[in-house]
Amino acid sequence: MTDERSKPETKPSAAAAGAAGVDLDEEDEGPDVLQIAPERQFPEEESRKGFWGKLKRGLLMTHTEIIDKVNAAMEGRATLDEETLEFLEEALIGADLGVETSLELVDGLRRDVRPQQAVDVFKLRERLVDEMAILLLDAPQPPRQPASGPRVTLVVGVNGVGKTTSVAKLARRSQLDGERVLIAAADTFRAAAIEQLELWGRRLGVDVVRTAPGGDPAAVVFDALQAARARRVDHVLVDTAGRLHTKDHLMQELSKIGRVIEREAPGWQRSTLLVLDATTGQNAISQARTFSAVVPVDGVLLAKLDGTAKGGMAVAVARELRLPVLWLGVGEQAEDLVEFRPREFAAALLG
C-alpha cells in the first residue's frame, strides 16, 4: 500500500470511561461533541433471558397498530367475509409487509377459512401468525457459524441507518458469546463515526483501530488484522463508509478492503452484513436492492425497530429480496440486539 498506515490504538476499559458515552442516534450530521448517559450493565444470563421482552418492546408500535386494525376489521362481524379480508390486506400493507407479502398472507386465510365461517378474532391472529411463519421459514436461513476460528465482519449501509451503533451492538453480542473483539473504524469519510466508535469502545472495553479522518480505510483494516492476530482476537468488526451515491468509489474501496482481508487473514471466515433502518419502511427495500447490486450481502441487520410502526418490513426483506434477516435492533442500549427467529417474530408481531 502507498498510503500511510494508521496506528492501532488501544482504548481504556469501560470502567475507565466513567460516565462517557455516545449520542445513540449517531448518524446525525450535527456537532461532533457527543453527550450521552452512562451505559446500563446487564449480567450475561439476564441479557440472554430478555429475548421475548426486547422483541415485543421493539415491535410494540407495529404490534399495536396491526392488532387494532385486525380488531377493527372484525368488530361487529361474526364471519370472515371478503370485505373483512380486504381490510386486513390494507392493515398488513400499512405495516410495511409489502403488497405481495400481504396478499399472500390473506390468500392463505381465504384457503383455510370457508366462506362465511365464524371466526374468532384471536384465532384469526393465530392463523396469520402461522401463515407469516411459513413465509419467513421459506426464506434463506442464516448461515451456520463455525464452532471455532477467527472471523471478520464487514458492516455496510448508507449513512444515517444506525450502522455505527449496530457495530457496537454486534461487538457486545460477541463479548457475551465469550469472544475477544476488535473494531476497525474504516469509515474514514465521516469523522464523527470514528469518534463514536472510540466512545463505544471505551464503554464496552473493546479495542478500536483508527486513523485520521480522510485516511485509507484499507490501511485501517490491515492494521486491525495485524493487531487482531497479535492479541488473539476472535472477531474483527469493520465499520465501512456508506456513500452509496458514489457507487464506483465505494466498490473500489470495498474491493481494496477485501484484498487486504484475503491476503492478511486467508483462513478467517468473512461475511458482509447490511444495516437497514426500519423507520424508512419500503424505502429500505429499495436501498437494499441497490446495495446488493454493489456488494454481495450475506445478511441483514434491521436497526431502529423500536422507533417505528413499520416492523413488518422485516418480512418483506426476507420474502421479496431473499436476504436472510439475521439481527434486529430493538433499543438504544448495547444489549438491545436480538437474533431474528421467524416463528417468534411472527408471534411477537401478530400474537
Describe, in plain words, how this protein is organized in 3D:
The chain is α/β, with parallel strands linked by helices. The protein is 48% helix and 12% strand. The chain is built from 14 helices and 9 strands. Strands 1-4-3-5-2-6-7-8-9 form a 9-stranded mixed beta sheet, with helices on both faces. Strand 6 (269-277), helix 12 (282-294) and strand 7 form a beta-alpha-beta unit. Helix 5 (82-94) packs antiparallel against helix 6 and helix 6 crosses helix 7 (121-138). The longest helix has 18 residues, at 121-138. The chain is elongated and about 70 Å long. The protein starts with 7 loop residues before the first strand and ends with a helix. Residues 1-48 have low confidence and may be disordered.
Helix percentage: 40-55%
Q: What share of the residues does DSSP label as strand, in percent?
A: 5-15%
CATH H-level name of the domain at 145-297... which superfamily? Answer: P-loop containing nucleotide triphosphate hydrolases
Query: Largest sheet at a glance?
Result: 9 strands, mixed
Topology-level CATH name of the domain at 145-297: Rossmann fold
The coarse silhouette is elongated
Which CATH class of the domain at 145-297 is shown? Alpha Beta
Q: Briefly, what is this?
A:
The protein is of the alpha/beta class and 351 residues long. It is built from 14 helices and nine strands.
